[in-house]
Amino acid sequence: MECQSAIVGLSEIPFRSRIYNSGWASHFFKHNEFWYYNQQIYPETFQSELLVKNANPLQRIEKSDLVILLSNDANLYKFPFGFEDILKDTSVWVNSKDVNINPKFFKRLTEGLNNKDSLSKSIELLRQKEALSASLKTDTSPKKVAEYLIQYHADYQKENYIYNLMDTIQQKPSLMELIKEKAKKNNISLEEAVYKDAVWIYSQKEHSQH
After folding, report:
1. Torsional sign, CA 127, 130, 136, 140
2. Cβ 71 vs Cβ 12: under 8 Å
3. pTM higher than the cut 0.70
4. What are the phi and psi torsion angles at 141 (to 5°)?
5. Is there a contact between 33 and 58 (Cβ–Cβ < 8 Å)?
6. pLDDT digits (tens, 9 = 90+) for 37-74
7. What is d(CA 109, CA 159) in angstroms, rounded to the nearest whole number?
8. So where are the chain's domains?
9. β-sheet bridge partners, residue 66
10. Distance separating the N- and C-terminal Cα atoms of the chain
């Protein structure tokens, strides 16, 4: 696949002069940016300073076909200059609209989002996902936010899957008898015991796939 856009980041002044100012990046990429020590973004900063932290860096990364990180020996101890903090949340996003949303989990999540502070934080979280930006301008109700969290956020999708496993477990009388014994032995509620078994099944499934 041909790369149309790239971010060249974390370089020293010599790199900026030889690679970016020289037009090297433009020769290979139709659109390119230079993130100087993960602070200023060029070419915008030539006109007016644009800081990485104020420019929705995660969205810019998602739009790029390639990210190149450069450093010389003298600055390797600083590498990658906080770039890893931008990427730490990228693994939480998934694209799956065909999720079988569990009614019980959806209700629980929606009720929690009736709290204004929780709703606000969840909306800000979802806005990190560029594909949701436009939708969030028209509907930020607790039900819609809960739906988006389950469809696009890995942690919520995992919990939704566990709730579906709980429903499956509860439909198996022989398995429920064993779980009732576990609940009694461990002095916990039946619901908690079912949840623990569902989590175990999920972890085994994940382990088998890696």
Report:
1. negative
2. yes
3. no
4. -70, 155
5. no
6. 878 888 787 888 888 778 777 777 777 777 777 777 77
7. 10
8. 5-88, 103-208
9. 6
10. 27
Nearest to 131, CA basis, from 151, 107, 108, 160: 151
> Phi and psi for 2 in degrees, rounded to 5?
-75, 130
Q: Are 12 and 75 contacting, i.e. CB atoms less than 8 angstroms apart?
A: yes
Q: Calculate ∠ Cα 107-95-6, nearest 5°.
A: 140
The contacts of residue 77 (CB under 8 Å, 6+ apart) are none
The tokens describing 113, both together, are 């989002």
For CA atoms 125, 141, 156, 109, give the dihedral sign: positive
Sequence-distant (≥ 6) Cβ neighbours of residue 109 within 8 angstroms: 146, 149, 150, 156
112 Cβ partners below 8 Å, 6+ apart? 118
Rounded CA-CA distance 159/180 in Å is: 22
Is residue 56 helix, strand or coil?
Answer: coil
Residue type, 40: Q
* Size of the chain, expressed as the number of residues it contains: 210
**14-28: pLDDT as tens digits:** 555 555 566 666 667
